[in-house]
Amino acid sequence: MKISTACKTALVAACAMAVLSPVEAFAAESPACTTENIAYLDAQDAQEDTEAKADAAQGAYDQAVADRATLRRTSKTGEDLFGIFLDMRSVGGRKGIEPVYNELKKLAVAVRKNDAAATAGAAVVEADVAKKAIDHIGEQGKNQDYLALDNAESVIAQLRSDAEAARKATAAPAVEQRKTDLDTALSEKEKAHKAVRPARDAYRDCLAKAKG
Asked: Alpha helices, DSSP H only, in the chain?
């Protein structure tokens, strides 16, 4: 519960005893400085509110950054898979690797657009095309490229896993906007923080004068 919620409806003296030093609280036993007291409590409320908003904005921004990184990671896995195919002699040269390359290009476009659904879809298709190419390799080719094939199977599995993560990375397009929102929230938090001390000082000065 915020201090003002409890104090604004109570006597000024009771509020002062809660938030000020014993000397200042004693001075507040008379209903003096009500305006200054409420201004101080409002400043504290504003500080608390802006801190909460800044925390929320930071979390939203961090999530967007993480989601964009997830899409980039998916693209990197797709590139790794194509790289393996380039080094394999058993897939049939350019004709064999072209379908994988075509899907990799679609994946790259989706990632550049920060499109989570399109990235996931393109990654799955690339994985499917690569698996199909591997399944059509004959025994001689498998013996020739057995190490690369094992690696390709592993990367295909990783690409499918990355695709599922990418599908959930829906905040990826919002990085810039959320950075702006965070900067605004931090600025408001700083302003609210700076406003508390003058309000407190004004309240204390008023109490001191009231005490005489």
From this structure: 3-7, 12-19, 22-27, 34-86, 93-112, 116-135, 139-144, 146-167, 175-211
